[in-house]
Amino acid sequence: MSDSDVTQLLLIEDDLLMANVYCSYLKQLPYKIHHVDNGEAALQALNTQQFDGILLDLTLPDINGIEVLKKVNSEQLPIAVIVITGDCSMSTAIEAMQLGAKDYLVKPFNKERLSITLKNSFETQNLQRIVEVYREQIDRKQFCDFIGSSIAMQKVYQVIDSAASSKATIFVTGESGTGKEICAQALHQRSERNHGPFIAINCGAIPKDLIESEIFGHVKGAFTGALSERSGAAKAADGGTLFLDEICEMELSLQTKLLRFLQTGTVNKVGSDRTEKVDVRIICASNKNPQTEVQLGHFREDLFYRLHVLPIHLPPLRERDNDVIEIARSFLNQYADEEGKKFQRLDAETELVLSSYEWPGNVRQLQNVVRNIVVLHDGESVTVNMLPAPLDSYSQPTSKSTASQPSAENITPTIKTTACVTPKMAPLPATDQLQNLIRPIAMLEREAIEEAINLCDGNIPTAAHYLQISAATIYRKRSSWQKHN
In this structure, what CATH number is given to the domain that contains residue 281? Predict the structure, then answer.
């Protein structure tokens, strides 16, 4: 076994007899033990060698063992420290743990206790190292041109990272405005083809009689208006990525030619019999369900299976927790700079409305809303009266009273929960015991949410944490309840 496979352990113990005992405990375990008998020698060893762990006796002949622990802590050395001492006072243990000690052993202890403590400490240390290495990948607020830290998007980021290096075709699905082209660009940027071209074609935006020429090119005179030879998108993307957006809008006849292109890697310009070899990675996207389009006969089944190798689904904005606020703030800063406006923030009431709205147009709709606000208004804070349609009516008070509504951060129920959720219905017959005993799920859900908000003193994010739902969900439900009251 090489030294790289062995855990390097520094034993700092001035009692030679006890040091021999500890060494005998550990001789069958994969540890290489370096023993020193005083604090100065320990500090010198830490300066000259790398260790995975330290067994540290706090009572040393020259300095207090705490000084060694302070060095490890101040220099952030990746070392698991286990303190051993005969002093079992709680204050000593607390000080050692505050300085980063992984565990605390009081003399005397047996072989089993020592081996288990070391094992647990090293496992914890290794886990912390793994978390640090992957922290950026498991908790990202931004990824390429995406913005959002929701769990749904963290999964998307991980899939993009995994799929980017593959040569397989990728099929991106999602509602309109969810960022399918941004996803394709991210896949290109994270791949080895990032130095090559990224060419995007919207199959639904190009006239049907021109789409073949756009993708594969044409020779002079191939059709009316073909005044010169032209290379298509497939040739232009040679060495890079070709993104075919709204692929399900492609004519069936052209789907056959696309399938041949995918199988052979060659293109034929319209009006030419000559084939050309190209090296292109295909990413396609659709806001329709491709399997449904296959069943309806609008999309070739063989082409679907050829393209649908690595599927990526982009969640709609309404399913992305509080990403809507992060995205809105980013757009606000961007457009305020572009337009020379003073906007710095969204006020609490505006954030409530943005979080409660369903966003059928997803991120693209949110982008347009924020740009509209910045162009037409100015100020340090975005208020609800600046919101354009349809959010302007969405944010209006729903009660018959004209009194001002409470701000989003101070919304708390003003009446008892039970009174607030009692449905307005005629009295039940006395004989209908089940209807008296069984209450609707929606009623129980509302009671639970309102009670949690009460217990959290009106703090909705805190209540959402304990309910294990997103704050945006609470905002949406409360808005719906207000509308129907």
Answer: 3.40.50.300
Residues shown for the chain: 485
- Quote the crossing angle between the two packed helices 348-356 and 323-339, to the nearest 10°: 120
Cβ atoms within 10 Å, residue 24: 10
What burial class does residue 420 get, using C-beta atoms within 10 Å of its C-beta: 0-12 exposed, 13-18 middle, 19+ buried? Answer: middle
One-letter identity of residue 114: L
Give the burial string for 27-55 (b: 16+ CB within 10 Å, else e).
Answer: eeeebebebbbebeebbebbeeeebbbbb
In terms of domains, do 121 and 188 share one? no
Read off the amino acid at residue 450.
Answer: E
In this structure, is the dihedral angle defined by the CA atoms of residues 150, 151, 152 and 153, taken in order, positive or negative?
A: positive
Residues with Cβ < 8 Å from 480, sequence gap 6 or more?
Answer: none
> What CA–CA distance (Å, rounded) separates 289 from 284?
13
Helical packing angle, 460-467 and 471-484, nearest 10°: 110
Q: Which two tokens stand for residue 66?
A: 């705490």
| Under 8 Å between Cβ of 199 and 233 | yes
- DSSP helix/strand/coil, 245: strand
Q: Long-range contacts for 289-295 (Cβ within 8 Å, ≥24 apart)?
A: 289/173, 290/171, 290/173, 290/247, 290/248, 293/248
Could you tell me if 371 and 453 lie in one domain? no
Pairing between strand 142-143 and 146-147? Answer: antiparallel
For the chain (length 485 residues), average pLDDT per consecutive 10?
A: 70 89 86 90 90 88 87 86 73 74 81 84 70 56 88 89 90 94 95 93 85 86 77 90 93 90 88 86 94 92 92 92 90 95 91 87 95 94 92 55 37 34 43 62 84 82 75 75 70
**Is 53 within the bounds of a domain?**
yes
Q: Which residue has the tokens 């202890």?
A: 109
Domain boundary among 285, 315, 345: 315
Whether 141 is in a domain gets the answer no
CB 319 within 8 A of CB 313: no
Domain around 296 = 146-315
**CATH code for the domain in which residue 82 is found:** 3.40.50.2300
C-alpha 142/C-alpha 154 separation (Å) is: 10
Q: Across 13-110, where does the E strand assignment appear?
A: 31-36, 53-57, 80-85, 103-106
Measured CA to CA, the distance from residue 96 to residue 70 in angstroms comes to 9
**Which of 270, 285, 315 represents a domain boundary (last residue)?**
315
- Token look-up 């060893």 returns 45
Angle at which helices 16-26 and 111-138 pack, to 10 degrees?
A: 70
Residue 35 φ then ψ, to 5° = -105, 130
Hey, which residues does 11 pair with through a beta bridge? Answer: 35, 55
